[in-house]
Amino acid sequence: MQELYAPAKLESKAKRDVKLVIGCWFLVGDLKPRSSHPRLPFLRSFLSRICDCGTRTLRDIGGKLMGPRGDFRVGMGYDIHRLAAERRLVLGGVEIPHPKGLLGHSDADVVLHAVTDAVLGAAGLPDIGECFPDTDPSFKDADSRNLLRSAIDRIETLGFQVGNVDVTVHAEAPKLSPYKKRMAESIAELVKANADAVSVKGKTNEGLGAIGRSEGIACSAVVTLVRHRRSQNG
Ligand SMILES: [Zn+2]
Hints:
Blueprint: H1 2-5, H2 12-31, H3 40-51, H4 55-66, E1 72-85, E2 90-91, E3 94-95, E4 100-102, H5 110-122, H6 128-131, H7 144-157, E5 160-170, H8 180-191, E6 198-203, H9 209-212, E7 216-227
Parallel strand pairs: 5-6
Antiparallel strand pairs: 1-4, 1-7, 2-3, 5-7
Bound molecules: zinc ion (ZN).
Zinc ion binds at residues 79, 81, 104, 110, 113.
């Protein structure tokens, strides 16, 4: 907390009280256009005077005090791939030993595809098939981690960051328990979130349908995004 106030040259006795005021200023300033809110000019000059710093510094401090906030989005993704012999099984960026792997144009990482679609959907961007078409030879056997990284780059350009990721993998086999933690850590690193903000769950299909007959593996994912600043495109 000490370094948070350093740019504002605040004496320690003022820090406690000014924290609340800066937070309120940040809130008000973020919700209303500056010119249209009658209290802003007064608040701005008052805080600049007592903190001995400019309004940009105040906004930076206020933003850190309030944490990521503002535009909040939810996205959902779903994907399914067929299991086939002589393919690697890659789930959530983690290679899992199994007699069969998933069939697809890329590495067929069904988990990362669902997460990528949820990320893109939450930001109102085109889906994974449009962004990374399987008719494009450059995506043949592509590492799906790069597709997700690219989706994260796109949402960051729009001012978003990932809040949390919740994943359910639908697979009759293999058992995912030994790999869930590594998968969550891998996804967390890719979406630039804390590991505790990513959940990976495994569900069988109780022997029902194509998943139950181990013909394929499906995944559903929910992602939240928080817009912490304005788009770079204005
Ligand atoms: Zn896919």
